[in-house]
Specification:
The chain is of the alpha/beta class. It has 16 helices and 16 strands. The strands form two sheets. Strands 1, 2, 3, 4, 5, 14, 15 and 16 form an eight-stranded mixed sheet that branches. Strands 6-7-8-9-10-11-12-13 form an eight-stranded parallel sheet. Helix 5 crosses helix 6 (163-179), helix 6 runs parallel beside helix 7 (201-219) and helix 13 (341-352) packs across helix 14. It binds zinc ion.
Length: 417
């Protein structure tokens, strides 16, 4: 345990470059010239918090009588704030490799579902899974994420789809949260699809969630965000609106899976003042224009485009129209089985012509805002000391290798892992 009471200044460095990601706008296009790059930089921390980021030598001199340690890095490293994956379904059981192969053999979504695949097959696996097996499998995925530089992750429920199993998922996520070094933010996605064993329609299902799940979520403090999938075959615009408005009144933050195959969800996100709307592969000019007049943060999920072989989120247009843009992995066993956020963000960058600054912003401070967090996403005074470092001298090497240049060091809350 670290001692929080005394001043215990530690200096980490020298890094060949520190890309701080500080003092950048939440919305709109970003040029690489806007990035602050500190050469031969140091990061001064007090326990888990950053005190200053500057030249290593300057900090060493200025704080020489207060330093209790120098965490000296020997090799060529470029430091960045820890990455944030603001949209995952990393708590799941079973594999959908059969769906993937069938899709690439020309089978339709409907055919795959009729043959026992699709989201419902994952629901069956999760319902059957032992709680400890689910904890184990999810924690292993999180180990992989942390090693790849993701220091904060969102995880959704949504494969339980009844009161008992949605609660099981949320409790599992919270149990892992107590043990794992990665920071976890849980979201309730009980409104993922209408469960196949529910016969009373979508409105009655969402009413059940409101009446029976929401009070338990509050009582056990299982999460403070709710999500819904608005799409043909999932939930309709009108039903979603009334569900989200009720949740808003109950004090929950809102996010929406919207405009993935058909537009409609983004307008609901705007109307219900959701924090983010995620997917947007089907958003056209009018949806983009409406989003640009709102504070809803668009979230691109390139892993789903790569997994399904679909168009990417129109990230360039969104940014040029003045929107913010976060990028997340959507890691799930069906449409986005890969789970490598850096690879996906780099590939989105090539297809959508995003600057390095825009890609990094999408997985750092702009992603932090999607989770309502103001204490991370940049390397700056008072921020949590979540620091990652790549073995290179030039930050541009990171996206150039499209995920193959791996993070070699991670500091979580100031502690080197
Ligand atoms: Zn998703």
């Amino acid at each position: 345990m670290q001692n929080e009471s005394d001043s215990q200044l530690k200096l980490i460095g020298p890094f060949r470059q520190i890309v701080t990601m500080r003092d950048l706008p939440l919305k709109g296009a970003l040029k690489d010239e806007a990035l602050e790059v500190i050469y031969e930089g140091g990061i001064l921390i007090n326990s888990s918090q950053i005190v200053a980021v500057n030249s290593f030598e300057v900090l060493k001199k200025e704080f020489s009588d207060q330093l209790i340690a120098i965490d000296h890095v020997e090799e060529d490293l470029v430091a960045l704030p820890g990455f944030i994956d603001a949209h995952t379904h990393a708590c799941f059981a079973g594999s959908r490799a059969r769906d993937y192969a069938a899709r690439n053999n020309g089978k339709s979504y409907l055919e795959i579902a009729q043959e026992g695949g699709g989201i419902w097959s994952t629901v069956k696996h999760v319902r059957e899974a032992d709680k400890y097996d689910l904890i184990d499998a999810t924690a292993k995925r999180l180990d992989k994420l942390l090693a790849s530089g993701i220091t904060t992750v969102e995880i959704k429920s949504g494969y339980g789809l009844n009161i008992e199993h949605e609660l099981k998922m949320l409790r599992v996520i919270n149990e892992i949260k107590q043990k794992h070094q990665i920071d976890i933010h849980a979201t309730c996605l009980a409104a993922h699809i209408i469960p196949k064993d529910w016969e009373e329609g979508e409105e009655a299902y969402l009413q059940l969630i409101i009446d029976e799940l929401v009070p338990k979520v509050k009582e056990e403090k299982l999460c403070h965000r709710f999500d819904i999938f608005i799409e043909e075959g999932a939930f309709s615009v009108e039903t979603a609106k009334s569900y989200l408005n009720t949740l808003k009144e109950r004090g929950f933050q809102l996010t929406v899976h919207g405009d993935q195959f058909h537009p409609g969800g983004s307008q609901v996100a705007i109307d219900c003042r959701a924090i983010s709307v995620d997917h947007l592969e089907a958003s056209g000019d009018s949806e983009i224009a409406a989003l640009s007049k709102s504070d809803v943060i668009p979230v691109a999920l390139p892993g789903a485009s790569i997994g399904l072989g679909c168009a990417f989120t129109p990230a360039r247009k969104l940014l040029d129209q003045g929107c913010s843009l976060a990028i997340a992995s959507d890691w799930n066993p069906g449409s986005a089985p890969q789970g490598n956020l850096l690879t996906q963000a780099a590939i989105l960058g090539t297809f959508e012509k995003l600057s390095t600054a825009e890609v990094f912003a999408g997985i750092t401070f702009r992603a932090a805002k999607v989770l309502g967090l103001n204490d991370r996403g940049s390397l700056d005074k008072n921020m949590i000391a979540d620091i990652i470092a790549f073995p290179t001298k030039d930050y541009r090497e990171i996206l150039y290798h499209q995920g193959e240049l791996r993070v070699s060091k991670v500091w979580k809350k100031g502690e080197r892992l």
